[in-house]
From TrEMBL:
Protein name, per record: TonB-dependent receptor
UniProt topology in membrane: Multi-pass membrane protein
Main location: membrane
Domain TonB-dependent receptor-like beta-barrel residues, every copy: 291-665
Biological process terms in GO annotation: siderophore transmembrane transport
Family, similarity comment: Belongs to the TonB-dependent receptor family.
Top-rank taxon, per record: Bacteria
Taxonomic lineage from the root: Bacteria, Pseudomonadati, Pseudomonadota, Betaproteobacteria, Burkholderiales
Domain TonB-dependent receptor plug: 57-161
Annotated region (Disordered), positions in chain: 289-313, 436-455
Keyword Membrane: yes
A GO molecular function held by the record: siderophore uptake transmembrane transporter activity
Amino acid sequence: MTTTSFFFPLRAPHARRPVACAALLALMPAAWAQAQEPAARLPEVTVSASGLQLGVSEMTQPASLIEGDALVRRREATLGGSLDGEPGIAASHFGAGASRPVIRGMDGPRVKVLSDGAEVHDASSVSPDHAVVAEPLLATQVEVLRGPSALVYGAGAVGGVVNVLDGKVPTALPEKGYEGSAELRAGSAAREKAGAFAITGGAGAIAVHAEAAGRSSNDYGVGQGWEGGARVPGSFNDTSTASVGLSWVGSRGYLGLAVTRQNARYGLPGHSHGFEGCHTHGDHLHCGGHGHDDHDPDGEGHDHDHDHDHPDVPVVDLRSERVDLRGELRDPFAGVSALRLRAGTTDYVHDEVEGGNVATTFRNKAHDLRVELQHQPIAGWRGLLGVQTAERKFSAVGEEAYVQPTHTRSTGLFLLEDYRIGDWRIEAALRHDRQSAQALDSGTRRSHNGTSASLGAVWRPAPGYALGASLTRASRAPSAEELYARGLHMATATYERGDADLRAEVSRNVDLTLRKTSGATTFDVSVYRNRIRHYIYGRTLDEVDGLQLLQYSQADATFTGIEGRVRHAVTRHVGVTLLADRVHARLDGGGRLPRIPPARVGLRLDANWQSWEGEVEWLQVARQSRVAQFESATPGFGLLSLSLAYNGRTSAGMPWQVYLKGRNLTDRLAYAHTSFIKDAAPLAGRNLTLGVRVEF
């Protein structure tokens, strides 16, 4: 069921911080007074992205599932911000309008974002200043699969897969004829106001769904002591999303269609016009063509006459329209248990507006098709096979058209099989991909083929324990931008050059995961090592006044890391959680990779009593001093967060909740090492969010 949020203006004076903390601590004595009882094991929720409807504890690779109240507490304006802080997951952070998940130190095309199993087509994998069009406020569940072993969704997802589930296409008829939710919320750091609603109705075999979400926020405030001021110029974000869906629902499945439109307008902090006219001489930058020269003979500079509310800040004006077709038919014919369909078409465009004029227009027209056939057990093996195709036409026209128009076609065939014997579950996957990327201006075409495979097992040595292991060989074809980029990209302060001769990456990954899912103490800890041959990265060749010359290059690289959490239920009503992660990434020939997340460790205390529930958490982020050439170190910081909620029911029996959550309550000045613009756009300072939601 979809939720949404409602807000009213709210300040964050220091006096409210002890009051909020005291409210949570007040729950402790009453909760502690309850008799200590063993923690019960909750029913496991199915991970849709597993392909075989598995629970988290059955997965061979590490997986996270966020839903319900936990998702309400975690949701932010962007998908990256909503997942930041989960073990192994950081965010790219580009002001308030754009942020993608960074999984195990990897982002961009190595992290695939899905909408209920179908790829989200936008421009976010091209550049970190481009927004992900998935709306967190309308998500009902978010699944994260770490590592490259989720081959059924593409071998290129070497970092992992993020699957955002929603209710836009109804899959069942509401029991009472209708169901829905509504939410309103308000935040203090950016004077944010946001709200959303969702409703599903049905009669006979027809179900109809409608949902919408909107938010409006000003420039956000940062922690104390930033030399740039109290707020980040150009960090505002106004977004609206709406969907309408219609489904036919029968006893053996459903078939439905949904239309979604999103409009967004957000600023690009840190943009500098001082790089206009910069160009390359060989492997060096030359920026002598701007200022008092032939391009500006009067020496008066450029007149950028921006919107008076955000002077000198470019604005992204985004429009996305997507049509989704989803269906499932159970037991369609002998030997087949389910047939699933996912298809969609996307028309995405965003203008980068400067001085009231459109400087650059990015377009992405794409369509995709995915068909899965799940077969009945054969000699004890159950599984699925499928085909996935996609076509993408991408173009950038204007001042910052650093990528020529491209046409990319891809096709993948995949097979996933599962076998169980005693306390063991064995999983094997095989996938073959072919990609063709053509640069339309030059006529250059590059094709890549790759075969990927994984083998994994889960062993349950004792009730409540699971040991998972997986070995994966995955092939990723270079993206069109890595092949054909050439030009100035002022949003990230880079001049990017692609290489049409790049080869496909080949990664070899090993994952070990130990889980305990029942009893007073539960945990989930993973270690991994990923060796990638021909790893593609932006190598900095030169720098002038903060502008970097990035050449997409290849070298062998190794990623090694650990991530996990341990929770101990002190009583039925009080729990303590320790969480941590660390990734170490470097080139095999020597040298560091840029923007690798620093190590983190966190301590969380949760409590519930009668209708109250709450959490308080301290997350310590280490200093990142293992940096690439031309990259600066980032100081460490600590963040104090709190959430408090009260649950009730109306006289008609409808559940409702009022919640308060606070982030960075100590108002610490913090920088995201994963961000291209970390110094121009620090993380938000103290932020209090007050919300109310109701389900009906």
